[in-house]
Design a protein that fits this description.
The protein is an alpha+beta fold. The chain has nine helices and 14 strands. It is 32% helix and 31% strand.
Amino acid sequence: MTEYSIDELRIPRAVGAAGWDDFVEMTRVRNEIEAATVGTPELGLPAEELLPRWIDAHDPRRLFLARVDGRIVGRGTYEFAPEPRDPVGWLTVEVLPEFRRRGIGSALFDAMEQVARRDGRTVYQSGFFSRTNLPGRKIMSPTGFGSVPAKDDGVRFALAHGFALQQVERASRLALPVDPAVLGANRARAEAAAGPDYRVLRWEGRTPHDRRGDLARMRNRMATDAPYGQLDIREEEWTADRVRDQDDLEELSPRIMLTSTIEYIPTGRLVAFNELSVPPETTRPVSQRDTLVLREHRGNRLGMLLKVDNIQALTDTHPGHPAITTGNAEENRYMLDVNEAVGFVAMAYESAWKKVV
């Protein structure tokens, strides 16, 4: 029987601060687990890029580590809203393949569940990549789009701990560079559909002061205007000050953010945005972050206009990266159509789960 220990890591407040060595090792384990499931290391992140999201006061989280003979072999992440009355906690467990089926994952989950119960959380949600090439029975998403194999380790673990599948998300990859003719043709069609009432604005790095309020308004709508199946996703409290705080955190990372937005000229307000997070090494892929078109402005091909504009911005200012990766709910056919028209292809699938206690 494997002897192991579970402990909580106090998140380092800066690179090199107390707990940094364990944070770096945890990141290596995270990346190794993800690469083993997805089949590529392209989605991995170094600790320096991962740290800012762990010290965001607006998005608190706690980290639990499993060790065997002092070696980190797994981790549990517990994410929760700052509002104590919010019932939702996100509990995710990851264990290196060679250390599974020894009770380590269950011990991590039990440790986090005890904390979540003390916090008054009664809805547990989780998300993880699944191996999709396994034979046998598939579990269909209740959205009617996508499935996961019943034999996948993560799926088996979630079902054993009382979770039910809620949604399947597709991770897609766009090989770079994109044929300029493809970008140009898609942009021309999108601009024709959008008409003269919309114009594209873009920036690199920090959000312009006079646009923070618009970006906060759109981020508040992420919970209501994006598809989440039956997951319990609540509208967050974004303000111009929180956008500023987020920009401060982004500047702690060596990555650079490229943002394309669309202004509705009659009101002067931003109604859509797309983000590309660019790593410093050109050998690594770019990650698309959030994309949103406000519901009342859909049907004008603004999603396509955003997509091709930011790809062009990346080509012009930060060329040489091998690909862009992104994720979309399988039922989000509009955005998948946009992605496929540009050249994105599926590379992995992530499933989302819920348990009510």
